[in-house]
Amino acid sequence: MNKKWITRVSLSIVAALGISCTLGEFADAKANQPQYEQKTPSESFTKNDPELYQGALDLGLTDNDIFKIDSLFDKEDKATVHNPFLVALGIITGMAAVVGSGYGAGRYIAKQLHKRKQLSKKYYKQHRWKFRAALVPVIGIAATFGFDDYYMDI
Question: Which residues of 138-147 are buried (b: 16+ CB within 10 A; e: fewer)?
């Protein structure tokens, strides 16, 4: 394995660790929330709407069932982040991994085109702005940079 692949693999591992730490924080915060809040009958949304309340009674629901359903709908997830540094680190490393893999994909595409004699470096250098304009919407900015760097010998 060459140095580039070692760098990409290690960056991907760091990104995965950062994302898993972030998800772990959210899971811990969600686990500490109560299942549902029991509302009093006067706070029930269904009880305040006569047509909806009558429809629920026609379905055979009791007042207790209606209040339980209302409280489940009113439940709010209040997941909090305990360590914003880990969240930021996960986002940054994830973005770096995506950009790095896109760059590598662009270089790989260029290498294959050159190896299979589909596009010469001389022709690319003469028409590079046309290629750049055409490649950005197709393969993205990062991959276009990798493609361009290969053909420009950078």
Answer: ebbebbbbbb
